[in-house]
Amino acid sequence: DADVTQTPRNRITKTGKRIMLECSQTKGHDRMYWYRQDPGLGLRLIYYSFDVKDINKGEISDGYSVSRQAQAKFSLSLESAIPNQTALYFCATSAAGEVQPQHFGDGTRLSIL
Amino acid sequence: RKEVEQDPGPFNVPEGATVAFNCTYSNSASQSFFWYRQDCRKEPKLLMSVYSSGNEDGRFTAQLNRASQYISLLIRDSKLSDSATYLCVVTHYNQGGKLIFGQGTELSVKP
């Protein structure tokens, strides 16, 4: 079983719909992250959480919200999806500390028509 | 200007070749450095950390030049399985593990 699991793996939806992407982890890590990846732009941080009561905006948080329901779960919501949110979304986790590597889920490919 | 810049490539090399990737970063407060590897449509995976004194892991050598704000990755004796996108990643002091990614350099190793 994967240590970091994202659901769904693929999603096609329409403009204006509310969408939730789920992430769960079995690594026991305190820190969780949501990124999006677009061709030519690399990975950009949307939101991150260092523990259950902690939520922080990343580089591109507008149009997104998150919920850290438990240490193992971190969900990303698009309240009213728009086409330029079409991207590959990754969840990642890391242990606490300055130089800990991040471990990524398999990604969610989201298309908004 | 992007905070972490890489030549996007693609680099097309024959098997057995030596190839080097470069990465520059603009924030002098950058603290930790990594190379990640990403296969097509897959998640990024940590390849190696980059230490100030330089470090080697098998066919892979990473170098850091803080004065020039420059990181490199050298791959010797390229294999077909090395074909992937290589992501240069930095973190900043006091930002507790947030990673800043370059856009990646694509490598294609041909038979």
Largest sheet: number of strands, sense, barrel closure of chain A: 7 strands, mixed
Query: Most extensive chain contact?
Result: A-B, 27 and 23 residues
- Individual helix count of chain A: 0
Helix content of chain A: under 10%
Give the topology string of chain B: H per helix, E per strand: EEEEEEEEEEE
What share of residues of chain B is helical?
A: under 10%
- Count of individual beta strands of chain A: 11
Distance between the termini of chain A: 32 Å
Class by alpha and beta content of chain B = mainly beta
Unreliable spans of chain A: none
Mean pLDDT over the residues of chain A? 92
What sort of overall outline of chain A do the alpha carbons produce when their principal axes are compared? Answer: globular
Task: Give the strand content of chain A.
Answer: over 45%
Q: What Rg of chain A is obtained from the alpha carbons, in whole angstroms?
A: 13 Å
Q: Give the topology string of chain A: H per helix, E per strand.
A: EEEEEEEEEEE
Number of helices, counting only DSSP H or I runs of 4 residues or more of chain B: 0
Question: How much beta of chain B, percentage-wise?
Answer: over 45%
First CA to last CA of chain B: what distance?
36 Å
Q: What is the typical, i.e. mean, pLDDT of chain B?
A: 91
* Structural class by sheet pairing and helices of chain A: mainly beta
Biggest beta sheet attributes of chain B? 6 strands, mixed
3D architecture notes:
Chain A has 113 residues and is mainly beta. Chain A has strands at 4-7, 10-13, 19-25, 31-38, 42-49, 56-57, 65-70, 73-78, 87-94, 103-104, 108-112. In chain A, the strands form 2 sheets. In chain A, strands 2, 4, 5, 6, 9, 10 and 11 form a 7-stranded mixed β-sheet that branches. In chain A, strands 1-3-8-7 form a 4-stranded antiparallel β-sheet, with no helix packed on it. In chain A, β4 and β5 (42-49) form a beta hairpin. The model of chain A has no long low-confidence stretch (mean pLDDT 92). With 111 residues, chain B is mainly beta. Helices cover 0% and strands 55% of the residues of chain B. Chain B has no helices and 11 strands. Chain B has strands at 4-6, 11-14, 19-25, 30-38, 45-50, 55-57, 60-65, 70-75, 84-92, 100-101, 105-110. In chain B, the strands form 2 sheets. In chain B, strands 2, 4, 5, 9, 10 and 11 form a 6-stranded mixed β-sheet that branches. Chain B has a 5-stranded antiparallel β-sheet with strand order 1-3-8-7-6, with no helix packed on it. In chain B, a hairpin with a 7-residue loop joins β9 (84-92) and β10 (100-101). The N and C termini of chain B lie far apart (36 Å). The mean pLDDT of chain B is 91.
